[in-house]
Predict the structure.
Amino acid sequence: MTSALINRPALGNFPSSDWASILRTGILSVAPKGLNQVFTGMSGSDANETAYKAAFMWKRQQQRGGHHVDFTPEEISSSMINQSPGAPQLSILSFKTGFHGRLFGSLSTTRSKPIHKLDIPAFNWPQATFPLLKYPLEEHLQENRKAEEESLAEVEHLITTHPLPPCAVVIEPIQSEGGDNHASPAFFRALRALTRKHDILLIVDEVQTGVGATGKFWAHDHWNLTDPPDMVTFSKKAQTAGYYFGNNDLRPNKPYRQFNTWMGDPARAILFRAIIQEIQKHDLVNHTANVGEYLYSGLEEISKRYPGEIQNLRGKGQGTFIAWDSPRRDEFLKLAKGVGINIGGSGERAVRLRPMLIFQRHHADILLEGVEKIFKT
Amino acid sequence: MTSALINRPALGNFPSSDWASILRTGILSVAPKGLNQVFTGMSGSDANETAYKAAFMWKRQQQRGGHHVDFTPEEISSSMINQSPGAPQLSILSFKTGFHGRLFGSLSTTRSKPIHKLDIPAFNWPQATFPLLKYPLEEHLQENRKAEEESLAEVEHLITTHPLPPCAVVIEPIQSEGGDNHASPAFFRALRALTRKHDILLIVDEVQTGVGATGKFWAHDHWNLTDPPDMVTFSKKAQTAGYYFGNNDLRPNKPYRQFNTWMGDPARAILFRAIIQEIQKHDLVNHTANVGEYLYSGLEEISKRYPGEIQNLRGKGQGTFIAWDSPRRDEFLKLAKGVGINIGGSGERAVRLRPMLIFQRHHADILLEGVEKIFKT
C-alpha cells in the first residue's frame, strides 16, 4: 500500500534503508554460479488463484454429480496432457479495468492496463464492461442506472453464451488499480442475484479494499447483502493472503487438491491477528469512516474552487478510499511530492488516496492545504 | 519440507499447537458475514511463475528486436483481450513426472499426478519424457545413456515442431514430488547446450532441491556446468521465494511488468539470511554430504539383505536426498510411523528421505535401525 506521507521525505514502497544489504548479505550471497541478480516473489495473486481453483473444482464436482462421484479414467488421463475434460473448458468472468493479480490465472482476469499483460500467454476468458458512473452521482441517476443495467445484461449474456462458460464472476468492490471505479450497492446485489440464478460463484476481490480503509472492515459490507459472496479474497493490509468462504462444498474433497508449502505462512497469520487487535483497540474502522467524511468534504470544497483540477470526485461514504480525475494527473503527482505529499495514481487519470488507518484530521488538513497549494501556483 | 523425526511423536507439516487458535482469534475473527472458513495462500509457485513471465518477456523482446523496440498497437490491444500477439502463442516445456507448482501457469507445467491437475484449466504446453534411469546405475550404463539421449531428442523435436514454441525449458535437478527421479550430469549439460542452440532459456527449479540437502548448496552444482542456467528458482528451505538470474536482458525493461506488493517479503529475506549464516557457521552443506554418504551406505547394506524391500536405491553422492522404491510403499510409510519415523513418499512408489540439515550420524543410525526393524517383522 502506498500511503500519504505528510511532511516527510518522499519514500518508495520498500524498506529502503537496508533492503539492498539484506539481499546482498543474504539471498545474493548464495546465488548460483554465474547468476548475480535476484527477483523475489510471493504475493496476493495466490489468494485469487486458489479461489479460482476452488471455483473450478466446485463447478466440475457439481457437473459430475457431487463430491462422492469419482473422476473418470478419461478425466484423469486428459488432465495429464492439459486437455479437456480433465482440464476443463471453463472460465472466470472478470470486468474491464479490473485488476486481480499478475500470475497466469489471475492475470487472465486482470484487465486494467496493457503493461501488466503484454507478452504473457493468457486464457481466453470473458470480460464484461464495468459500469462507468458519472459524477456527481445525484446529477446522473438515470444514466448511471442504465450503465449498471447494461453491464448486468452483458454479464448475463456472457454467462449464457461464452464458449468457455464461467464458473465464477470475480469483481472488486471498488476497481482500485483500474482507476477507482465505483458501482452502486444495487449493482452488486443484482450481480449476486445473477450469479445465484445461473448457479455460478461470486468472488469478491478485497485485496485492495479490505481491512478498514473504506470505513467498513470489508468494502462489500456497504452493499447490505442478504446472500453473502461465495468467496472473499484478501491480502495487502492483512499482511497475509487467502480467501474466506462459507459453503462446505468449496472445501477440497480429497487431500492435496488445494495445498501449498506453508498454507499461508503462520508467522504472517500472527501478524494479521495483531493488526486486527490494533484496529479493534483503536476503533480504526469507525475512525477511518469519520476522517474520510471530513477529508471528502474538504476535497469537495476545493473542487468547487478548482473544478478544472478535481473532476469526478468519488468515494463519498467510503472512508478514506477517495479519488478524483485530474486532467494533468502525472504532473500533479510530481508536484504533490514537492509539497511533501507522497500520493499515487490509479487508472489513466485518477489521483487516489490510500492513507493508513491511523490517518487523522490534522493529517487531512495538511493534505488539503498541500493540494490547494498546488492548484494555486 | 518433511523431515525424519526420530523418537518423537509423529508430527504433521504445520505448527499444530496453536495454529487453530491463531486462525480463530485472528483471520477468522474478521470473516465477512456469512463466511466462516478460510483457505490461506502464498507459496513458491510464485517463484516459478515469475520466472516464466520473465522468459516470455525475454523471448518476445528478442523477437521484437530488443528492449528499445516498443510494443505495436496490435500487441497492446490484443493483450487486453487475452489474444495473440499481445498474449503470445508461446509455451514453457516441462517434463513428465515433474512438479513445478499449483497455480495456473505453474500447474500447466506440473506433470506428476492427476490429483494436482484435475478440474483446473491448463495451457496446452508441451511435455517431454524424463529419462527413467535403471539402478544400480553402473549395471545399466548403456540403457540409461540411451534413455537420456531419447529424452533429449524428444526435447529438441518439441522445441522445433510444437505449435506453441517453448521460450524456456523448466526442469528439477531431481524430480522430487514425481518420484525422486535422477538424471546424469551429462544429461543436464546436454540440455543446457540444447536450449542454448535453440536460443531458449533453461530454468532450473530448485524449490525442493536447493539449500544444502543434496550435499551442495544448489543441486545443479553437481553438474559442473560451464554455462550456467538462465534462471534458478527457490523457495521452501529458503523460507522465501524467487529466482536468480544473470543476464541483464532478463530484467524487466519497463516499470510494473514484474511486480508484486511485497516483492518477496523483506521479513522472510531476513530469515533466509539467518538460515544461510547458520548453514555456513556449522558447515551444514559438507556435513550433509558426509552424513548422506554414511546413510546411503547403510541403506545399501540393508538393501542387500532385503532386496525385495529396497529397490532402485538412489541419491548416491546427493547428500541426504536419498530415495528407494518400495513394493508396499504406503504400508511402509505407515509402519515407519509406528517405529517413530515420520517419513514421506514421492511419486507412485518411492520412499524419499528429506531430513533437516542438522541430521547427524546418530540420527541415521536410529533411522537405519528402524527401517530394518520394519523389514524384519
